[in-house]
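--- STAGE predict ---
source: upstream dedup step, 1 unique chain passed
mode: sequence only
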Amino acid sequence: MQNDKDMKEIIETGLSRAAEFVMGGDMADRVFLVEDREGKKSVVMAPSESYESDTRMLTYLRLLFAILGVQAYCMVSEVWVSERSTREGPAPSEDPNRKEAIIALAVRRVRGESGEPMLVARTARRTITRNPTTVSPIDWCDGVEVSGRFATLLPVVDHAPCPDVPFALKKLQEMGKGLGFGFMDVEEEKRKGAH
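--- STAGE serialize ---
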């Protein structure tokens, strides 16, 4: 995810895979595709049951991202959206005219023109219709301000690599027991599938 083209590709990949789940009648709460400093990709499944569980999940993800040395991530989630021009009115989940959608948010750490560290983000969505289930083409949400809890999982300034990643991951896994998180090393899964 070194440039805008890479961010666009990871969003397209995430939204395409999510659309396959939706067409099959299923969708995980949130899926994160993450990339570390060496370009290694991993997948993190992060369920959501409430605002409180989201708070625990965000703490867990920030720690996991720090341990793995994550430089970029893409979150894909199924959501309700309201097609209103203002924020007035009911929340999207309560809006009788709401629409179902899959959203993707990609965030990466970069260096600005003068060398200062900064984060950049890009978003997109696909609208879902039911009976029969269909998924729209990708709608790039360019020009939309990106903010919120899920846009701030990386520190702006990079940190030193974790000295003992396996130990730290084991401890983090123990800490997250019962929270329903899943972690998969993409390259390791590819190797297992090849045998």
